[in-house]
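not sure who needs this but someone in the group chat was asking about tRNA dimethylallyltransferase from Eucalyptus grandis so here u go. i didnt clean anything up, its just raw.
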Amino acid sequence: MFGGGAACGLRTCCLRPLRSPIEPLLRRSTRSRWPPRRRSSSAAAPAACFASSAGAKQKVIVISGPTGAGKSRLALELAKRLNGEIISADSVQVFGCFALFCSFEFIAARVYRGLDVGSAKPSLRDRKEVQHHLVDILHPSEGKLFLQACYRDIVADYSVGQFFEDARQATKDIIDGGRVPIVSGGTGLYLRWYMYGKPDVPKASPEISSEVYSELADLQKNGDWNAAVQLVVKAGDPKAQHLAANDWYRLRRSLEIIKSSGAPPSAFQIPYDSYKEKFQSNMSDGSQEVTSSVALEEIRSKDLDYDFICFFLSSPRIDLYRSLDLRCEDMLLGNDGILAEARWLLDEGLLPNSNSATRAIGYRQAMEYLMWCRQHEGRTSARDFLAFLSNFQKASRNFAKRQMTWFRNEHIYHWLDASKPLEKVLDCICHAYHDQTGELNVPEALRMKKEISGRREDAELKAYHTKNRHFISREDCSDILDWIRRTQGSTERTCSFS
């Protein structure tokens, strides 16, 4: 029977080859604009000109929140109002599925299908209506480029440092085009580096990268995570033992930094820490709310590169949990849901927890479940499937809880109640963007409390129980179980989404 223990017992390692020398060509080709940039409307031009002529910092709107809170819809409607473009700050939406064709004259990339369902990626219609950046820019596994009669494998992962560079460049492009940058996503570290800057950590040379790869390759191939951690600890990074299990990317990066600089990653100053210290030192003896506002305004006006106007969109915890549970069910409906995408990832040769895409909530659980089904030649029961669904829902709720904990300590965000009418929330953000006084006050009716409101809510959360809408009885699971038997029971599996 499939359950949480079975999933956790799976080996989740995947050998990741070195980056190909021609990878920069792939990265440039997959970041082509679609749709082409449109001319900015006259409505947005005066605001941009005013900021420039007055010498003020350009404004950037940041919208974050837990998974399933409605960030994408809010950002889309906001972009329509403000003549803006959206930069995705989601660590999974960067991945798409590309067919790559290469000749000596050109490299062309065409998006066939990506990790759309599990990442709640904006639809093609939405992306045609409003320009989106950093969506579908990487293949989650590997592409093959034919160059000088040789095939080279490229395995794509996406680091927070890459996001910083790409998002900052996209911000500059949007502002230069006379439009409003709107950053939307729930990956906290992406947003923190984007606003405060990235550490000045040395980049490894190709020789050092090759050396690190050679040292860790056999250990990763054999799934010997503990031995690999001890190797890095002995090299000089004792904090490596606190990394999440099978996070081979960060383990490799730690060893690269040690070999490049002679010091562990923790030796390098993180810009956010200095801002946090400055914020705390600026706090006076007055009320917490007033002093936080004053300290934040000083940091925003003097130290950051842009005038970031940040909002955290959420809803009461019980409502959010119910919404997430139903959302997980919806992702499993039909023959092209998250199980089909997880099947494709496995057929591409990836294993759960092997890179950013396969570590994501939903994909990891779905891949582990399908691996278990494959081990049993596609034989699974409604009880097994419902156990997988329960694990998926629980992981989503826990992830949302971790996101709220993370952003609760990010004082630059103003919390908005997602259960309030969309028009009123949009009016609030638009007013904050056009305001020239520098004072941002969210109306009391739209504010979302950061903490659990009282004993009643705490008791409700402890007693919370999932109530499925689609998958309740054995009969409700019959279509999915039939799909699993047809697609996971055969040794001749294809990569199609049938």
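also The longest helix spans residues 382-408. if thats useful
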